[in-house]
Design goal:
Blueprint: H1 3-20, H2 24-28, E1 36-41, H3 48-52, E2 59-64, H4 74-86, E3 91-97, H5 101-106, H6 116-128, H7 130-134, H8 139-159, H9 162-171, E4 174-181, E5 186-189, H10 194-205
Parallel strand pairs: 1-2, 1-3, 3-4
Antiparallel strand pairs: 4-5
The structure holds cobalt (II) ion.
Cobalt (II) ion binds near residues 41, 43 and 101.
Length: about 210
């Protein structure tokens, strides 16, 4: 694809938006007040707005390899702080996906260089749930399950932050764990029991 095509696409998109609403970009440039913070994978096949059916302005978005929420990653922590404390999003989504290359790499005994410390966080998820995962004999199913458990653990990492703990107490912020299935196009809600998890982990992770 030549970049000139991108710029042609952009002009077409502007025209389409203006045809629907003359002041679309005037409104868009005023301010942002997104309802969602979306944390997803960088995978090119998993685009947040498309799979959620939302428009610019509705979600503050962070994507990295395998949708990780790592406490010493200044990038994701800055995004989370800004979205929860400043933009005051009402819902936080961690969205993983089946066929995730990052999760697959963490299941293999391969030296991936600079990716090793990043993927080690996923190996830690495997270790935490080793009994359940090792009991699944089908490798594909085990891979799918690790994708789900990784989303669950990253939701827990979201809950461990002081920003989210405060927002939960003050305004009942919602946390969701989802998995996108690119084999069908469907989004699956893992229905993570946030209040129960909170109760379980707060003994150790409560910050105030
Ligand atoms: Co991925």
């Amino acid at each position: 694809m030549h970049v000139s095509e991108i710029f042609r696409n952009n002009k077409k998109w502007v025209a389409e938006k203006l045809a629907i609403s003359e002041d679309y970009f005037t409104q868009l440039s005023k301010d942002q007040s997104p309802e969602f913070l979306y944390i997803g994978c960088s995978d090119s096949r998993v685009t947040a707005e498309d799979l959620m059916g939302i428009e610019p302005g509705q979600a503050f978005i962070h994507r990295n390899i395998a949708n990780m929420v790592t406490s010493i990653d200044l990038n994701v922590m800055s995004v989370l702080h800004y979205a929860v404390d400043v933009l005051k999003v009402r819902q936080v989504v961690v969205c993983g996906h089946y066929n995730c290359g990052g999760v697959k790499a963490a299941m293999q005994s391969v030296d991936m260089g600079i990716l090793n410390p990043w993927l080690r966080n996923i190996r830690d998820v495997y270790r935490l749930h080793k009994d359940e995962l090792n009991a699944i004999s089908d490798e594909g199913k085990r891979y799918d399950r690790l994708v789900e458990l990784n989303v669950q653990e990253q939701c827990i990492n979201v809950i461990k932050t002081s920003e989210v703990q405060r927002a939960y107490k003050e305004r009942n912020i919602l946390i969701h764990g989802w998995v996108f299935d690119m084999r069908t196009g469907e989004l699956k809600d893992l229905k993570i029991d946030f209040p129960k998890i909170l109760e379980n982990i707060m003994e150790i992770y409560r910050l105030d």
